[in-house]
Each structure stands twice: as structure tokens, then as C-alpha cells.
Amino acid sequence: MISKKHNFGAGPCILPSTVMEQAAQAVLDWNSNGLSILEVSHRSVEFESVITKTQLLVRELLNVPDSYSVLFLQGGASTQFSMVPLNFLKKGRKACYLDTGYFAKKAIKEARLFGDVEIVASSRDKAYCYIPDNYELSHGTAYLHLTSNNTIEGTEMFAFPKVAVPVVCDMSSDIFSREINVRDFDLIYAGAQKNMGPAGLTLVIAKNSFLDSVNCELPSMSDYRIYRDNNSMFNTPPVFSIYVSMLNLIWLKEMGGVKEIEKLNISKARLLYGEIDRNSLFDGLANLAHRSRMNVTFRAKDERTGAAFFELASERGMVGIRGYRTVGGFRVSLYNALPLESVEALVVLMREFEQMVACANTVSHLESVR
Ligand SMILES: *Cc1c(COP(=O)(O)O)cnc(C)c1O
Fold first, then answer.
1. Binding residues for L-glutamate
2. Is the CB of 77 under 6 A from ligand 1?
3. Nearest to 154, CA basis, from 10, 296, 9
4. CB neighbours (10 Å) of residue 28?
5. What positions does the entry give for L-glutamate binding (predicted)?
6. CB 168 within 8 A of CB 185
7. Ligand 1 neighbour 172 (Cβ under 6 A)
């Protein structure tokens, strides 16, 4: 076993140690066939079976209907910010966006390069601490774009709009963490590095009829139909990322699938939010109803106390808990592979820290009255 830190990082995320071990072995000698996974042809029968198996696992774990394609791309979720409008924002139509945070804003900025974009609702007024749900879509809407989990602000959508227009969703940071109904969406995209595998792979799940609605020529690498028609092998796919994602999805299936991991994710989140609410030193940042189960954001009531807690946590081998630079405070990510024990260790430390601060305050109070 490898000795490990408690990794609360927001991405690339923690992966199960068994997956790491299998991946390490495959780099040295894949399936004992005398080749490394890094040097096999993506056209080999062996790798074709990997890509097929990974697609099947995605279908099985998320209950993807047959009328949808599962595609493997590169360029991260950020490339999807422009690829979606390039494919679907036609002349004379409008794309509607929900502005729920840092990544939604980035998606909006890219879409504006391609056509008319309307922000139908925004939670910017309150530092993105909630998910707005009161909005209307006008005629001629090409699609509505959502971000299911706002990785930086720590908010998550627990209900998705039932609307008459196609729905596109950035699920980078909560895909495979909870059950979803794929039929609620026309296109889902996610950078793999937050719950699926290592960086380098982007997962797209798209309704075929939505892809067929694209009726113009596009650069091949930006055309979803090309990926579909070539089984995601129009060019060299990210072989290693797909392989490790496959291992991770096998692990997830063995854990009981998305349904079971969701239960575990709920208990991890409950435990940590419970302590944030109980502990006199910290405040949660997100609205109660929209608290993310994947990225928990909070801050210390007192800045110096916060700095001291960072130090103590890193002494105890806890990494990745610093909030994003635009938000500050703490962000603790609880992705699928993060064990409950890591959350327990953090909660114990928060309690211990509260007592240490109370003692220190008593001592300094006694000194001041002496
Ligand atoms: C991390 C993240 C992105 C950016 O993903 P890249 O793969 O780095 O481009 C986009 N959206 C969300 C919700 C994210 O969490």
C-alpha cells in the first residue's frame, strides 16, 4: 500500500488506490503482454475493447438510453464551452445560460463569440451562493445551458428544469456522484478529472436527434457527429485517460454503482456540513438548499483563526482545502473516491481546533485580567 494524504483537492481528483495500483502496473506491463498501456496502438483489438467497455460502463452506470451517444473527446470541459455553441447556436437563434458561477461565466463568454446569448438568471447578486430557479425562456431558444455543480462556489442543482428547449449541462464536477435522468438533457459534458479518471478526457453524452439537428459543415475535431461516426477514434484518443477511467468505473460498479456511491456521498457531505454548522469558528458559504455534496465551501469567522487551521490541517496530512482564489476560505472536495475516514479525520480536527482556540482565548483573557 502507498501511504497517502487526505486529498480534498478539487481536481484532478483523488482516485481509489486499487485503481492507481492497476494503472501503475499497466504502465509497466499491460495484461502481461510485454507492452505498456502507453505504447499500444489505439487501433489494436485490445484497446478497442477498452474503449467499448468504458462506453458500456458509462451507459450502464448512468442508465444512458440507446437514443444517446457516449463520446470521448479531449480539450477539457473548457473546449465544450465553445464547441456547444459552434454546433448548436444557429443564426437568428439565441442560447440561454444560467449564470451560477465561475465556470458558467466562462461558458457564457465563449458562447458570445458565436451568436446571441441571454443570461436568463444569475446568482451573481449574492456571490453565487444559490441556484436561481425563476426564469423564462423566450421563443427561438436554441438551448438552455446549465452547470449542475458549481465547483468553486460549492452549490449544486438538485432539480433540473423541465423545458421545451434542448438542455445542455456541464456536469464536470458531479457526474457519477448521484443518480440523474439522462433524458432530462440533450447533451451532457464533463471533464473526466473530477470523478471519472485522470485529466485529458472529456465525456460527452448526447441525444442522437440533437446531434442530427446540426446541419452545417464544421471543423472535424469540433464536430460531435465525427466522434459518433468514428467511435471516438477519428484521431488518437487519450488512451491512458480512457484506460484509467475504465478502471475507475469498474471500481464504481463494484461499489454498487451510482446509487450506492450517492448514499456514501450524502453521508460524507452531511458529516462535514453538520460540523461546519455546529462549530463556532466556521460559517458555510452556500445556501442550505443548494449545498454541493462534492465541493463544500466555508470560511473561518476570523481570518487569523482560518490561517491557523490551514496550517494545522496541512501538518495532519490534509491537502487541497484552500478555497479558490476568487472566493477565499476553504473548499473541501468530497469526490467519489474520497473515503469517509478522510472526512471523519477532518471533522475531528475541526472539533479539536475549536477547543484549542477556546483554551488559547481563556489563557489570553486570564493574562489580560491579571
Ligand atoms: C473543472 C471544471 C471545468 C473546467 O474543466 P477543464 O477540463 O479544466 O476544462 C468546467 N466546468 C466545471 C463545472 C468544472 O468543475
1. 43
2. yes
3. 296
4. 9
5. 43
6. yes
7. yes
DSSP β-bridge partners for residue 122: 99
Q: Tell which residue, 122, 169, 123, 121, has the closest CA to residue 143.
A: 169
The answer to whether the Cα torsion of 217, 221, 222, 226 is positive or negative is positive
pTM to 2 decimals?
0.97
Closest residue CA from atom 13 of ligand 1: 172
Predicted confidence band of residue 3 (pLDDT cuts 50, 70, 90): low
Check if 191 has its Cβ closer than 6 Å to any atom of ligand 1. yes
Coil vs helix vs strand at 131 = coil
φ, ψ for residue 109, nearest 5 deg: -60, -45
Same domain, 272 and 321: yes
Side-by-side strand order, sheet with 202-207: 68-73, 202-207, 187-191, 167-170, 141-147, 94-99, 116-122
- pLDDT tens sequence across 271-302: 999 999 999 999 999 999 999 999 999 999 99
For residue 59, the enclosing domain spans 17-254
Q: Classify residue 182 as exposed, middle or buried by CB count within 10 Å of its CB (0-12, 13-18, 19+).
A: middle
The protein residue whose alpha carbon is closest to atom 7 in ligand 1 is 76
**Centroid of ligand 1 to alpha carbon of 195 (angstroms):** 12
Nearest to 279 by CA among 331, 358, 351: 351
Residues 151 and 241 in one domain: yes
C-alpha dihedral sign at 357, 362, 368, 370: negative
Per-residue exposure over 131-145, b if at least 16 CB sit within 10 Å of its own CB, e if not? bbeeeebeeebbbbb
DSSP letter for 291, please: B
The set of residues, in sequence order, having a beta carbon less than 8 Å from that of 34 and lying 6+ positions away, is: none
Query: Peptide bond preceding 12: is omega within 30 degrees of 0, i.e. cis?
Result: yes
CB 160 within 8 A of CB 146: yes
Q: What digits encode the pLDDT tens for the residues 26-78? A: 999 999 989 999 999 999 999 999 999 999 999 999 999 999 999 999 999 99
CATH of the domain at 351: 3.90.1150.10
| 305 and 244 within one domain | no
* 31 and 149 housed in the same domain: yes
